[in-house]
Amino acid sequence: MSFVLDASVALVWCFEAEHTEPVIALLARLTETGATVPQLWPLEALNGLIMAERRGRIDPARRDRLARFLRRLPVAIDDETTARLWDATAQLAERHRLTAYDATYLELALRLALPLATVDRALVAAANATGVRILPAA
Question: Domain spanning 4-130 has what CATH number?
Answer without folding.
Answer: 3.40.50.1010
